């Protein structure tokens, strides 16, 4: 019996020529204004021309496929689908269905779940596999091995700064109205930060949000840039270490929003800055993903 594993992620353009189509898809079919597209292109240019996310994600998927094959030869067929780029989630789901898998395990490459995030991926995947049984992997931020891995990264990053240091855990902001609907995403992020802070033995840490969309409605806060500016005004903290706990790979929101934009804010505020290394395809992280998959495989 072969079990399908559908790994899902946000997706990113593989070439600069794809930016306009990608931006249009993100905006649900509404093409961006020329100024908006130019700004996005400038951000990509600042991190080397294009985001490494596509490459990093494919490396993660390939490594997970190899690890699952090592653990259970022939049992798992792994496919990848993206929310906003080729191959889409639906295409990957059809690929697994055509391979005759007995069921499909859906894994989103984000440790926290939300109605505006991973739930949409899982719903699209479940619809696309049709009558094949579908197992949706829930939030996996509390996996002990993941907590320990992130705690080690925090400890390593703290050696890059001096003086009194505050660790700030960040995740992608979402419209604040999700809290009104009972979405537990903010609580998951807070719990995730608490677990890692405890494992790393931190005494001074906080949770902030990043990469909010530019829409009129309020988004989850506080914004990490505002937090760092406030630290500069108040004094007492010499440096910050930022742990983007909601992200599992290098991409625009990490390499630009944090390493360029936030680093500049910290410099202006007179606060030292360091960031934890991204998980990418670290074998220890791939092992966590394999654990999550195999624990969701309850078939004989």
How is this structure best summarized?
By secondary structure, this protein is an alpha/beta fold.
Looking at the overall shape, the CATH architecture of the largest domain is 3-Layer(aba) Sandwich
Number of strands: 8
Please give the oligomerization state of what you see.
Answer: single chain
Main sheet record: 4 strands, parallel
- Helix-strand makeup class: alpha/beta
- Coarse morphology: globular
Order of helices and strands: EHHHEHEHEHEHEHEHHEH
Q: Tell me the β content.
A: 15-25%
CATH level-3 fold name of the largest domain = Rossmann fold
Number of domains: 2
Structural write-up:
This protein has 300 residues and is α/β, with parallel strands linked by helices. It has two domains: 3-140 and 281-296, Rossmann fold; 144-275, Rossmann fold (3-Layer(aba) Sandwich), CATH 3.40.50.1400. It has helices at residues 19-26, 34-46, 53-71, 89-98, 118-128, 144-158, 185-200, 224-234, 252-255, 257-269, 283-296; strands at residues 3-9, 76-82, 103-108, 134-136, 165-172, 205-210, 239-243, 272-275. The strands form two sheets. A four-stranded parallel sheet has the order 2-1-3-4, with helices on both faces. A four-stranded parallel sheet has the order 6-5-7-8, with helices on both faces. Helix 5 links the parallel strand 3 and strand 4. The model has no long low-confidence stretch (mean pLDDT 95).
């Amino acid at each position: 019996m072969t079990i399908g594993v559908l790994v899902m992620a946000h997706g990113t353009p593989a070439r600069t020529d794809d930016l306009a189509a990608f931006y249009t898809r993100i905006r649900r079919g509404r093409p961006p204004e020329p100024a908006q597209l130019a700004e996005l292109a400038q951000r990509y240019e600042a991190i080397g021309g294009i985001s490494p996310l596509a490459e990093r994600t494919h490396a993660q998927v390939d490594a997970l496929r190899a690890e699952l094959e090592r653990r259970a030869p022939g049992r798992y067929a792994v496919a990848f689908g993206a929310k906003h780029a080729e191959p889409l989630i639906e295409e990957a789901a059809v690929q697994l269905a055509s391979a005759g898998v007995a069921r499909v395990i859906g894994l989103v490459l984000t440790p926290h779940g939300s109605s505006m995030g991973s739930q949409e991926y899982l719903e699209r995947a479940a619809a696309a596999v049709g009558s094949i049984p579908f197992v949706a992997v829930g939030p996996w931020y509390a996996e002990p091995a993941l907590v320990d891995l992130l705690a080690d990264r925090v400890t390593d990053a703290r050696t890059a700064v001096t003086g009194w240091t505050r660790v700030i855990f960040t995740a992608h902001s979402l419209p604040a109205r999700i809290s009104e609907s009972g979405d537990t995403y903010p609580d998951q992020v807070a719990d995730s930060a608490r677990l890692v802070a405890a494992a790393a033995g931190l005494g001074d840490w906080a949770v902030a949000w990043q990469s909010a969309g530019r829409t009129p409605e309020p988004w989850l806060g506080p914004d990490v840039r505002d937090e760092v500016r406030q630290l500069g005004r108040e004094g007492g903290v010499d440096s910050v270490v930022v742990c983007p706990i909601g992200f599992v790979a290098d991409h625009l929101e990490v390499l630009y929003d944090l390493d360029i934009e936030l680093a500049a804010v910290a410099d202006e505020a007179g606060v030292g800055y360091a960031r934890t290394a991204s998980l990418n395809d670290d074998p220890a992280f791939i092992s966590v993903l394999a654990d999550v998959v195999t624990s969701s495989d309850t078939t004989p």
